[in-house]
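Query form — protein Carboxynorspermidine/carboxyspermidine decarboxylase

QUESTION: What is the three-dimensional structure of this chain?
INPUT:
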Amino acid sequence: MHCQHLLFDPARIPSPCFVLDENQLSANAAVLNSVQERTGAKILLALKGYAAWGTFPLLSRFKGHGPLWGACASSVDEARLAREEFGGEVHAFAAGWNRREMAELLTLTDHIVFNSTAQWREFAPAIAMWNKGRCPDRQIQCGLRINPEHSEGAVEIYNPCAPGSRLGIRRKHFDPTAMTGISGLHFHTLCEQGADALERTLAAVESHFGQWLPQCRWINMGGGHHITKPGYDLDLLCRLLTQWRDRYQAQIYLEPGEAVALDAGWLVATVLDVIEADMPIAILDIGIPCHMPDVIEMPYRPRVRYEHDGAAVLAGEAGQKAWTCRLAGKSCLAGDVAGEYSFDAPLKPGQRLVFEDMAIYSMVKTTTFNGLRLPSIGICGPDAAGDMYFRMLREFGYANFKNRLS
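ANSWER: The structure tokens for Carboxynorspermidine/carboxyspermidine decarboxylase are given below.
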């Protein structure tokens, strides 16, 4: 584990703190770039999954030395962050836009994708007016999000093609006359899944919308591609992207979030107390709903490391190691619980725990519920001498809580 000797050092790392791994971010970017080079596809960072802009120079070819072509936004503020801090292409999609948002999006974006024919027709005149007189390569391109009605077994809350989903236009509601002025189609079915799931999705898209794909200048295959996960079938992915590029003579886009920052960050926490209830419960200096909300929403069980005999070791399943306890947060929510874990010895106040793979989604979803302060944000990586450094990027205080309200 990169930087592991830093994470348990209270003198170097504050608690709680998100610690980003420069080495892993760069390694992930290299894998993504290999896909781009093999296929000609353009990969965008999905800001909904990872938006730590202090690390964008590691990822962006326009604001640093990274490989990515731009970012995709789900809101005006994400679009502005992409324009200011990431550079390159800025793509935007939301389930709905209002006029105020559209007026601002026109100044920020290169692609705008609409969730319905009605929204496209409402804003098409404003976009046409904006594009009038502008250079052809600087005009805003517009797309429609389609729903191929093909699910890949994702958790329901994260399944964009679940029954009743509001995301994308189904085939029975698709109006071919709306394609006038549309330059591309967008679809998204995956959530942390492999190339085999994409292959099945592409078959469904062709089955439902194949007759309109040849009209596309670009095709956006959305996010959820677990490209940087060990064992991911890169050859199959590249074969699929190349086939669609050649078949439809279209620019292919992917917009992963988790693949960009997978395993590239941790949340460092500290044990405050250990109490006895129906089982031992370790109270931490974090709040699970505040700082790791996906543990409750998804739900999932994050990996936890702790220091034992001078090494960073993984906590086990309940009952697997000598001592089992429940890890819980400090908020007033009764369900503020991360799960049950086992350790080589009982935890003690002051002991550090490290939650793995916390760069994606957790950081962008943090809240100040109960007035709990947001974790600090830092980064670790090799210095010129090859030693690992830690650098603080951001600390939060009372003003961040107060300024959310009035």
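ADDITIONAL NOTE: Residues 22-39 form the longest helix (18 residues).
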